[in-house]
Fold each of these.
Amino acid sequence: MLGHSVLEIVLLIVVLGVMVFYILEMLSGRRKKEAQYDERQILARNKAYKVSFIFLVLYCNVCAVLAGVPIKWASVPVMFFIGVFGSVTVFVTICIINDAYSESFPGCKYRQDKPYNSLLFTFSYVILSVLWFFSKGGHVLTDGVLNENTMYIIFAVMFFVIFIAQVIKKLKERAAVDE
């Protein structure tokens, strides 16, 4: 039991450290200008908002129908978590694919200086989520129903989808530069 407590404390310190580093990086003097999106990016973001909202509405309707029948597949917090973060994952993935996720700063070298910060952050969060899951015992079912431990794996899968979208986008950008 003590090993789990130490692992949880270490993971918490690592997660807090990454969050503090990321916040300090964002608040550093490099980002003094406000984010500027061009018209194409604004339209793509609006489309992504609509698609993620439709995903959330459809998901809520499916959960409501399943609640009406005697099929209990997940606890209420897990269902809520999947819906909200699933729609966020849909939004972010569509924005990355349509090149509307990162804002443009005219004359700013921030994106060129550290192009792989978001990839590193996303991948490290996937690893930390999986480790946190195993520190909680690694059980996903309680009486045949998905329990709260499932959220760590679901979060890791959602971040992995975002990571894959980022990698595909980077590879497409590199191929376009090489041509």
Note: Residues 2-27+38-102+112-178 form one domain.
Amino acid sequence: MISTLISLLFAFALFLLSGRLFLLLVDPAGELRLGAIAINALGFLLGLGFISLQLFFYSVLGIGISSVTVTLPWLIILCLLLLVYKFGFIDRRASTLAPLPRDGWGPVEIVSVIIIAVQLFYSLLYSTTLPVTGWDAWSIWFLKARAFFVDGGVTPAFLLDASYGYDHPDYPLLVPLSIMWLFTTLGEVNDIAAKILYPVQFAALLSIVYYFVKRSVGRRAALVATAVLSLSPLVIIHAAGLPVKIGGLYSGDFVGYADLILSLFFVAAGGFIYLYAKDGCPGAFRVAAVLLAIGAWTKNEGLVFAMIGALLLLLLLFMRTFSLRLALLVYDIREHESGDLRPLLSGLLFMVAVFVLFMAPWATYKVHFGLGSEYTVGLNIGTLTSNIVRLPLVVGSILAHLFTRISLVNVAWWLLLLSLIVNIRGLQRPGVLALILLLVGQFAVYALVYIITPADVSWQISTSLDRLVLHLLPLAILIAAINGGKLVECDRVD
């Protein structure tokens, strides 16, 4: 038991180390004002991307995967960064931004903290007492992690084995490789121990949402939004599981899927896009770009979100650089570099670099070994026009899921709708508008997938829509809190 705990602590320490090292590079002055909890949550999130990608590179290059070989490069980078900081090659000036106001504590804040604490305790206790039971967890994510651990890495022999075709060999590998890293430090396949990854994701999700709302609105709104998110059954069944079935689903336990972590990448990337639109902080731009790229490395759905997010980030970057006339209508530019192409070029180069880093290797690997997706076959005008009759069913099913299945999604979507009704002018703010475009754009793509799917569309909706909604549920709560919470603390200027 003690050795298992030490091994897991070591595994998570490397997730944190790799992610925190990246944050030191992109935000050396601390202008993101992350705070102790948020910086570790974000470091963990980024670390999942970097460590899993490292394991994939080791597999392709034939480098043996062990605790030592994976850790050593990060220790070298840490030493180099310490030397760089010591000799002053990186600007370590403290942030000149004013500190966030300190809000008082009242009954609302106290009750919210109690709710969050209880949910976190439940997720940690319940998820680690039961084995993996979800179908996709067994047949896709944990199955691949076991195979990679036994084979010593990602191998085409396993991915091309027709007897394992049901595990979707074309799916990105962040989740199975992250679980494989836990198995590696443990020295064995231990599903129950590896499930600790999911309550940690849950804690990181709550921390990230709290950070964005507190920074943009205030502590009370942040705690209430975080409490509402923690009480969402759809989140809980993926973070810890429930002993009963809910919302018409076949099970109450979906721990081990990749959808919770994808929702975390979505809301974190969206939050930093919002902060870049609001403050123009270069660190927010860079972190958002990396999170978008890692999201594409998590699930295929993340690729579309990355493309939409990248377009929005580039639009904001162009508006800030050139002070376009359109920007003057919707963008509050207090300080900009009109005519200075250096910020534009550096932003473009950084985004291209991280997108290539996280997307190109797996895409190249799939092309080389012929790992295709069943959905790309139907992506043509002929299929779209012949199946367009599905559109009313698809849109109706999505809306019904959002607004009538309260036992599954809580009141998140009603809160979003209410915030837009009472503060429709919030859409004039580019950050809020960008988040709405992310949300609507992603749902539009999901609708397109249901239209072109070769499977029975009613069956496909009944077996997958709940997970697609999960991808965007935290983002919906974030938008509702940012847009609606401003009415409570109207003295804060956006």
Note: The radius of gyration is 22 Å.
Amino acid sequence: MFTLDSQDLKEGFYTAERNEDGTGFFDDDAQRRMLKLLDEELRGTPTMMWVQDSWGFSTLLAFAFKDMYMKPGARLDGLGRIAERYGVEDPQVLAKFREAVVAIANGFFEVGGYDIMIGRAMMRPELKLSASWKGRDLVWTQDADGTWVVDGSEKGFAAFDADTAEDLGLADGSASDLGELMFLRGYREYQVVPSEQEPGIGAGERISADWAKAWNRAFDEAEQLWQDSRSKLQLDAGKYTDLAKRNYEKIVALLEKNNAAYTKWRMTRHPDLNQLKEQIERWKQEQIARNKAKKDNQGGSGTGGGRGGRGFGSPGGPGGG
């Protein structure tokens, strides 16, 4: 069982506001890897999704599960953020890019067995969505002519609350807690596999919590190294170049081992891994040049080469003033 509770947008006191605790990030390659995991590696394994609430890119993950349940009041919303991925001015480029991005995202709907018209209407504001019953079959159409109109606007995105999702057969039911969910699944008795370290919580919950702590710890360590490098380079680029190079190498090692930490790193406007590696290489070449100059000048009166590129964010360096 997978549990989903993720909001890029939350309800503030007066209105909806951006969730500063963390917002989704759409990565084409990561989406493809996730689809492969769900469609191939978990094929044949009984799985289900319990949606606590979902607003943003995370909603794609909910639709990758054929068996979906929702918590009362939960949402399947926020896929309008997909439009951020194809927001270009040229209309011809936009149309091609939009179709490619929407097609990738709709792969989740296909894995879960949902009509891709649903996904298209949730990702494209100009498309409408309605449904009609034909016998026992629910037929979706990209218009507002059906018996049940989900989205009749050409400016908004389709979305579902728990009640609507259940009424239209997207969700198999609503459950407030695990006991109720198990009852809906036909289990009057069940046992949560306990964590070895903390028997009071489930093993799955512990694995998830440990994973989140690990990648946040990796990000925090990389961020501390980054800030230390910036402050030292701004203070004296020549004196602290070697320290900055070692810090950058540590940052690269941390982020290459942890995709989640690297995703947050990219979202917080840091140089990407290639840029970091290029700066490390520049410092290495400068060190080689200094060593050569020192060797050439041994026994002479020369002073050798200058010391130290300034690095990202330092005065005179890439991204600096």
Note: The CA atoms of residues 103 and 120 lie 9 Å apart.
